């Protein structure tokens, strides 16, 4: 405010001096006064807005900040809708299976196939429900807010707190997440250190369940589809309302499970590849840029958190002995993940490799 007052007072003084001059003097002083005013305006604006750290990236971020804010808030609110959608669609599939598919299997299939469908189907449903519930309700882990004696990589510019290794800021949750993979709207939660296993297990078992339903109900779907096509014949065959609802339910079941199996199956395979490499979705982009940068200077890049393909899976699932593949992977388990998500141990050969780069 003081700068603007100085500017206007300076402008008034220059105007008074200009009018006091003779007409032939005004012409020579005219352009010099304009240049002085222009230069003074530039200095004034620079003193108010100039920042040596400002660049075009900062300007663009500032321009798009309202859009980012809108997207983040919409994602946060629509997360509740997506969670309700997952629950309702899954419940509808389970209900159709119990009302129509299982009774048909029990009455038409041999005993050993009936036992197989009962055991596998219920095991799959239990795993889907358990891991989805845990993925939604478990906190991914946040960066410590108080001072602590732990190694940090940088300071978060938004939270203004130290960021441990593999920690990234989530603009939707508005906090720093330990070993952040991504923010999942279908969970309305971030996928991080403490719920990464639940998220991947849910994706895996949901894909397996959809493939199971799609394959098991294929013949039933074809019969139901042919029956629905016959509705438009002249004259149409007679079906009761209950039979028509049965046909449409099977059609809905097969289309939904087949579509989810393809879409979610691709996502599951993608995350399986990342787990095998020992990196998250965020780290994949960072490592790819770092790999290109080092390649340009003739050096190689090695992921310091890659413990080997098998060890990466053991770390994710918390497998410490052979029996854990059954008790902690095939069966629902709420055991905590390996480590605290703040400090990370690198294999000895990785330390040596990084020193030679």
From TrEMBL:
PROSITE patterns: DHHC. Its EC number is 2.3.1.225. Residues 154-285 form the Palmitoyltransferase DHHC domain. It is an enzyme of class 2 (transferase). It catalyses: L-cysteinyl-[protein] + hexadecanoyl-CoA = S-hexadecanoyl-L-cysteinyl-[protein] + CoA. It is a multi-pass membrane protein. It holds the Pfam family DHHC. PANTHER family: PALMITOYLTRANSFERASE ZDHHC16 (PTHR12246). The DHHC domain is required for palmitoyltransferase activity. Belongs to the DHHC palmitoyltransferase family. This is Palmitoyltransferase. It comes from Silurus meridionalis (Southern catfish).
